[in-house]
Amino acid sequence: MNLLKDPFISTTDGKVSLKDILTSNKDYQLQYFFDETQLAMLQMLSSLSTVVLKPTAKELNYYLSDGLSAEKYDELLEKVDSKWFESERFMRLAFSSKAKVADAPITKLVSGIECGGSANALGLFSESSKVSVCCPDCTHVLNYNLHMNIKGECFGPTGATGIRGGGSISTLISGENLKSTILLNTICVDYFNEQAHLDDDSESRVMWDCPPISDIYSAPKIGLERGLFALAYYIDFSVSNKQCTCDICGHTAEQSVTTFQRVKFSGAYGSTKKGRDSGAGWWLHPYTPRSVKEDGVYAVCARDQNWQSWQELTSYVIGKDTDKTSVKPAFIINQFQNKLSIDLSLNLLVGGNIADQGSIAGRVYDLYAMPSSLSKNNARISLVIDAGLAQKERLSLAFNKIFGVGYDKNFVGGIKSQAIQKFTSNAQQIIQQILLDVDRKESGFLRKEAIEALNKEAQSIFKSVQRKYQHDLPLFKALVKGEYVLYKADN
Ligand SMILES: [Zn+2]
What we know:
The protein is an alpha+beta fold and 491 residues long. It has 15 helices and 16 strands.
């Protein structure tokens, strides 16, 4: 099986190839049981599409507007050294016979599932019995997910940190169908070269063709294709000739896989402390928003269990500067804003794990409607998000009144933080809903609508707390004072 030629992608119409998706007008839907695998698949397919098409911005705009013919795909594929994308080679490197090999069930490649023994790898939320066997085709996306998305700490001392850092958030552009989504996340080589600041002698061969040898993996030396599939482990999957129904994609297969073996790379990327301190530099991973600090560049991660993606949406789309940190949107968002000219309604997909040291505390997989012209209308997004953040702040101020009652700080602090969490979580849906109209409604109206809906939500949460403590006179009186803060001047 070859990933650039053969059908290995699971869809509701059976398995199809990358060429099938990119060159037909059929509306294929990916079929993977976990949103985590679905997200990894979108990243991997867009990266594979980059390998075949290697488009300039002009060419990508053409493929988006006029389509890509099967003949053109074949013509472009001829220029690619496709043997590196054969299934037994893709993203795989044999470990030396002397290496200490870590062996694990494939369950570990879906990070929402707990099966780790280390004290630091728990708190996951699906049952491990849900994934015990997969088809050989699905090993590729699981392997990709391990290298790009799963935090090394989830594997204890045998875990490695890849080129994107551990547990980083991904942002992708989501088009009207699978084909346009993959094209919209395909990287324009001319724009990438302009932005990535690579050295003239950067290595573009993939790492399973030409493994890195130094201790520090210097970012300017890593070419586009090498970086898109950068390895952090020597890895192998043992395939047995036993029929299975795949727990990842649901298809039946003649062969099956239940375990994988790995040995981590000994060098460090600029995404790690060692790499940063040694000046490896940040490799411009196209799907990763990043924060630029005095001591280096970090991938944006979600660490708090109660975190909701709407709070950071403005920085993912436009960027945000504070005193010490500047958050930059992912390259792919900038590419869309600056280089692509299409008139379609689009969504922004924000996905990833919420990681806390070695544990995965939650999952993010949120879609936001975006204005068709991101460069012209992105101010509308910030208006809505700012309304949400202002309302959250006001709710917090309203609850601060209960700290003056003289009760135990943990007790009143608990009341407050529970209410704020509830607001943050409910606001997620409200904001996604309001942004559905981002193209149709004018900004003043959009802002007013956001303020009204979010204020109503904050008031309803506040009222339910008031009701709960109506017989506790000191607390109730403090809440009445807080109510004033919440209700005053809404605009
Ligand atoms: Zn499968």
